[in-house]
Amino acid sequence: MKKFLALLLALCMIFSLAACGGSTESAAPESSAPSSTAPEGDTVDLVLWTYPVGTLADNLDGVIAAFNEVHPEINISYELLDYQNGDTKVTSAIQGGTAPDLIFEGPERLVGNWGRNGLMVDLADLWAEDAAGDISTGVAEASQLDGAYYMYPLSVTAHSMAINYEAFEAAGALQYIDEETRTWTTDDFVAAMAAVRDAIDAGTINVITPGIVYCGAQGGDQGTRALVNNLYSGYFTQEDGTAYTADSEENIKALELLKTMVDDGSLDANLSFAAADELQAFANQTCAVTFCWNYSNYVSYAEQTQFTPFVMAFPSDDGVPELEMGMYGFGIFDNGDDAKVEAAKEFIRFVCNDADTAAECIRYTGFFPVHSDMGDVYEGTDEAELKEPFALMSTYLGRFYNLTDGWTEQCALWWPMLQQIFSGTDIQTAVTDYVTQANANIG
What we know:
The protein is α+β, with helices and mostly antiparallel strands. The protein has 2 domains: 2-158 and 325-396, Periplasmic binding protein-like II (D-Maltodextrin-Binding Protein, domain 2); 160-322 and 405-440, 3-Layer(aba) Sandwich (D-Maltodextrin-Binding Protein, domain 2), CATH 3.40.190.10. Helices cover 41% and strands 14% of the residues. The protein has 17 helices and 14 strands. A 7-stranded mixed β-sheet has the order 1-3-2-4-13-7-14, sandwiched between helices. Helix 9 crosses helix 10 (249-263) and helix 16 (407-422) packs antiparallel against helix 17 (427-440). The longest helix has 17 residues, at 186-202.
C-alpha cells in the first residue's frame, strides 16, 4: 500500500510536483488586510489563522488585497500561529466559541483532529468543482475522513534530511551515500556520522557536532519520527490507523542505535532544541546534518549557508526510504454562519484554484502544486533547477499515517519521550509509556 501511495503521488508530482510539525517556527504580530470598500451591511468579516509554512504569512497582505479586488465585500484579518503554542491557542478558541473562520495547516490537524471531532465544514462541493480530477488519489485520501472533505489543499512536499556536502567530503564520508539516488543504508549512516565525528575531533572540518537529535519541543517532529521509523523499517502506527506502534521491535532497535550514537559522539541529543534551532545550527555549520529538510527550509536558510546543503532521504536498513508527506491547505471551522462559510470558500477558490494566484502562493509555501495541470510553478525562476532533488524525494513517499486518531495528543508525547531516553530512562519503559498514553487517546 505504501508503494502504491508513493507511486500515485509521484506520478502526480514528479514533473509538476508536488508536524505535526512545520517547516519553521516563528511568530508574527497580528495583521489585517485593507478594509473593504463595499457598503456597510453588505460585508462579511472573516478571521484566518495560519501556522508558519514557508513565507506565505509574510505575503498575506498582498494575497488578500488581490482577493479584495475581486471580492471587496469580504474582509479578512489574519494571525500567525507557531508550532509551540498554536495548538493550545486553537483549542482554547474552540472551547471559548471564538475559533477562526479559516485555518491553514495540514491534514493532521484539519482532518485527523478537528474534522474527526465534528468541528469543520465538509468541503465536498469544492472537491466536486475539480472537474479535471488532477489532484492525486493519495492527496485526496489525506484530505477526507469517512467521505467528508475537511481540507482543500494548496501544496505538497516530501520531508527529507540534508547533509553539509563539503563537510562530508572533507571527512571522507561521501563514500557512504549514493549521490545519484540520494539514499543510504543504516550501516552507511552510522559509518558516515562516525567519520564526521572523527574529522571534527581531528580538527579537519569546521563543524562542532555531527548531527543533533532535537527533542526540546514539538516543532519538526516529523523529522525525528522519520529517522526512527526508517532506520530498521519500522512503522509508527498500524496500517489501518487503529493503534500507535512505536514500541515495535524495529523502532526500539532504532532508538537503541540513536542512543548508542549519542553516547559515542556520532550524534548529539539536544533537550532544548526544536527543529528551528537545529535548522539554524545546520545553517551555521554547527552540525553537519539536519533531520528537518524540505524545499521550504532550503528557501528559508539558503542565504545563510556557506556550504552546499545536499538533500538526502532518511537512512534505512534496506536502503529503501519511506518519507513523510507534507501537505498544506485550508479548512473552515463550522461557526454556524452560512454567509461566512460561503465567503471562506470563495477565498479558498481564489488562493488554491486561480492559476496565477495559486502558483504565487505555492511558491510562497516553498512546496509544489497538488494540481498536476498547473505544471512547473518554478519554471523561469531562480529556484527551477534547485527543485529537482526535492522532486526525487517525492518518489520515496511512504504511507500517510498522520490521520490516526489522537494525533495531536501523541505529538505532545513524542518529544518528551525522546528527552527521557536521552536522559537515561530505559528505552523500552519510555516507549511503552508513550504508546500506552498515545493509544489511550484513540476514540
